[in-house]
C-alpha cells in the first residue's frame, strides 16, 4: 500500500476512509472532522488506522469560512508507515457510559464524560440510558470478550430514595441478582466499573445518594466487575459540578493509562509536537512535496449547499459535536412565526408520562402589603376527562415544567454564530465522523427558539469544562467553585465577559446546544387537600428575585414563569405521588408540623384535611411551629385559627425574623406579641423542648417543611439537641434515635433545595 498525494480531503477520505485530522491549536491537539479546516489554514497530521497498518503524514489545507463539500490540500507528505504493528481494533477496550437521570443532569454529565474521552482520542465509547436496553444485555454482553470493558455508571436519586424512572428496571434487576446468576467461569479481571452518584446532602440527608450506594455495594458483592476506583458521591448541596469534574478527570486518567495500542498508550498525545521515527519508514524520505495550489479557496455553487438554518445560506461546521441539521421554519402564525407555549403535542417524551396542561383558575398575591417577592397562591383545575393520572393526596408534589423568558432567549441568540434563523426547525444531527458519535440531546422538529425556551436552562451555571471553553481555556486561572458557582454565573455572563466592545463573543450552535444544562422540572408541594377542593390543586410559592455578588439581577426560572401565568392560561405539570409523606391514619396520634416560608404549602394541605375531617375525628395533640420574615409576609392566619377552634390543632406558634412590618413600620402585633414571636422557628422549638420530646416518645409524627440548606439543618440540629438535653442521651444515642424515627417513617421531611 502506498499513500499518494491527493488534492482534496474528499479524495483522501475516499482513499483512506474515516480519516482523522489532528490540528495544532492553543497548545493542544484536537481531533477534527475532516470537513472542517479553518479559513486561515491548518498544518497538522493526518492519520489512518487500520487493523494492520497506520499511515502518518503532514498536510496543509485551506477552506472558505462556510461549509463546502471539497477543500484544497496544498501539500501532503507521508512521514512514516507502521505496518502490521497495531493491535486489531476488535481488541481495543470498549467503554459504556450508562446513566439514570430524572432531571437530565446525569445525562448531561454522561455526555461530558464522553467528550472528555473523545478529546483524548479514546475509541469505542458509547453513551446509553439504563433504559435503552435490557439489564442483561447492558451488563453481560461482554462476559466472553477478551478485551477490556469499562462500565461507567452515573445515577441520581429521586423521590424519597428511589432510582430515577429510567433506571428503575435496571436497579430492580441488579438488586435481585446473586452470584449464581452469572456463569461460574466469569472473569472480572478485564471488566471494570466506576460509579458516580448525584444527590443533595442538605435537601435529602436521610436518603442522600442511596441509589448509587446500593448499586455499588451490589456490584461489589456480585464480583462480575472490578472497581476501577471507589464510589464517588456528587453533592448538589455543595458543588455537584466540581465533584463531577474531579471524578471525570480521575476516570479519564485511569482509562488512558490502562488502554493500550501497539503495546503503548492508545491515545494520540495532546502535545504540539509529533514524534516520528523516519528510520522505520523508508517511504518518508522518498515522498515528494507538492507545490501549493494557486488558489486554495474552492468555489462551490451555492445551490448545492443551501442551509435553511442560516439566513446567509451557509453555516460553519462544528469541531467537537455532530452538526445540527436544520430545516424550514417549524411553525408559523399570523406574525410569521408562532412559538409553541409547550411541547406536549410535538415532543411528549420530553415530559413525564403523566404531564398535562392544567388551566389556571387564579394566581394572586396572598398578602397585598407584602414585598414584590411575597408569597403567592396559584390555583389550577384538573384537566377534564383525565381522572386517573391527576389524582392526588395531601403531601404529594406538583412537578412544573417552566420556560425561559423571551428576553433571555433573544440574548443568547445574539451570541450564536452565522446568524442562524431562530425559527428554523431542528431535525437532529448529521452523523459524526468521530468514533464517539453523540445523539442530539433535545427534542427534534421544534425550532431553535423553542429549544432555548423549553429544553435548556439558560439561568443555570455552566459545567467546569463549558466554563473553561467559554473563557478560552483559562483553566489555570479559573477557580470554578469560587469564581463561577459562588457568584451564580451563567453561560451568558461568561460570553459577555469574553466579548469586546461592540464585538460579541460568538459561539457555534452545536457548542451551545450540546453543553447547556437541560431544563429540569421543578417540584412544588401541593398546598391543598383533595377532600376540600373539587378537582383543583393549590400551590404556594415565592417569586425568586435577587442581585448576585457581581451585581447581576437574577430571577428564578420556575417562579418567574409561574408569576406570569394568568387566568385562562395553562401550566405544564404532572402530579407526583409522595406516599411516604402522609398524615397518620389514626387521628389520635400526635402530630408536630414545623415549617418556614414556602414550607407552609404542605402544612396548608394537612390543615385543610384535618379541618375537613374534624367533625368525625377525635384528634390527639396537634402542634404547629411556623416562621415568616415579618407579619406582612404571614399567610393563612384564618385557616390556623379555624384549625385551633375545631381541634385540628392544639398548639400553634408563629415566629417572625422581624416582628415589625416588612418596611420597618409598626405591625398589628402588640409589644408582648412582638417579643414572644421574635426569632426563628428553631427558637420556638427549643423553648418547647420537653413537650416535643414527649411527643416523640409517645409515637408522634413530626413533619419538617421548608428550605434544606439552612432551615432543615437548623431544625434537625435543634431536635438532636433536645434529645440530648431533655432525653439525657449522648450525642451518638441521639443520632441513632433520630435515624430510627426516620426509618420508621415518624420523622418526615419535605425540604427544597
From TrEMBL:
<keyword id="KW-0521">NADP</keyword>
<feature type="compositionally biased region" description="Polar residues">
    <location>
        <begin position="295"/>
        <end position="305"/>
    </location>
</feature>
<keyword id="KW-0560">Oxidoreductase</keyword>
<dbReference type="GO" id="GO:0003958">
    <property type="term" value="F:NADPH-hemoprotein reductase activity"/>
</dbReference>
<dbReference type="InterPro" id="IPR003097">
    <property type="entry name" value="CysJ-like_FAD-binding"/>
</dbReference>
<dbReference type="InterPro" id="IPR017927">
    <property type="entry name" value="FAD-bd_FR_type"/>
</dbReference>
<dbReference type="InterPro" id="IPR017938">
    <property type="entry name" value="Riboflavin_synthase-like_b-brl"/>
</dbReference>
<keyword id="KW-0285">Flavoprotein</keyword>
<dbReference type="InterPro" id="IPR039261">
    <property type="entry name" value="FNR_nucleotide-bd"/>
</dbReference>
<keyword id="KW-0288">FMN</keyword>
<feature type="domain" description="FAD-binding FR-type">
    <location>
        <begin position="353"/>
        <end position="584"/>
    </location>
</feature>
<dbReference type="GO" id="GO:0010181">
    <property type="term" value="F:FMN binding"/>
</dbReference>
<dbReference type="InterPro" id="IPR023173">
    <property type="entry name" value="NADPH_Cyt_P450_Rdtase_alpha"/>
</dbReference>
<dbReference type="GO" id="GO:0005829">
    <property type="term" value="C:cytosol"/>
</dbReference>
<dbReference type="Pfam" id="PF00258">
    <property type="entry name" value="Flavodoxin_1"/>
</dbReference>
<dbReference type="InterPro" id="IPR001433">
    <property type="entry name" value="OxRdtase_FAD/NAD-bd"/>
</dbReference>
<feature type="compositionally biased region" description="Low complexity">
    <location>
        <begin position="284"/>
        <end position="294"/>
    </location>
</feature>
<keyword id="KW-0274">FAD</keyword>
<feature type="compositionally biased region" description="Polar residues">
    <location>
        <begin position="261"/>
        <end position="277"/>
    </location>
</feature>
<feature type="region of interest" description="Disordered">
    <location>
        <begin position="261"/>
        <end position="312"/>
    </location>
</feature>
<feature type="domain" description="Flavodoxin-like">
    <location>
        <begin position="95"/>
        <end position="252"/>
    </location>
</feature>
<dbReference type="InterPro" id="IPR029039">
    <property type="entry name" value="Flavoprotein-like_sf"/>
</dbReference>
<dbReference type="InterPro" id="IPR001709">
    <property type="entry name" value="Flavoprot_Pyr_Nucl_cyt_Rdtase"/>
</dbReference>
<dbReference type="Pfam" id="PF00667">
    <property type="entry name" value="FAD_binding_1"/>
</dbReference>
<dbReference type="GO" id="GO:0050660">
    <property type="term" value="F:flavin adenine dinucleotide binding"/>
</dbReference>
<dbReference type="Pfam" id="PF00175">
    <property type="entry name" value="NAD_binding_1"/>
</dbReference>
<protein>
    <recommendedName>
        <fullName>NADPH--hemoprotein reductase</fullName>
        <ecNumber>1.6.2.4</ecNumber>
    </recommendedName>
</protein>
<dbReference type="InterPro" id="IPR001094">
    <property type="entry name" value="Flavdoxin-like"/>
</dbReference>
<dbReference type="InterPro" id="IPR008254">
    <property type="entry name" value="Flavodoxin/NO_synth"/>
</dbReference>
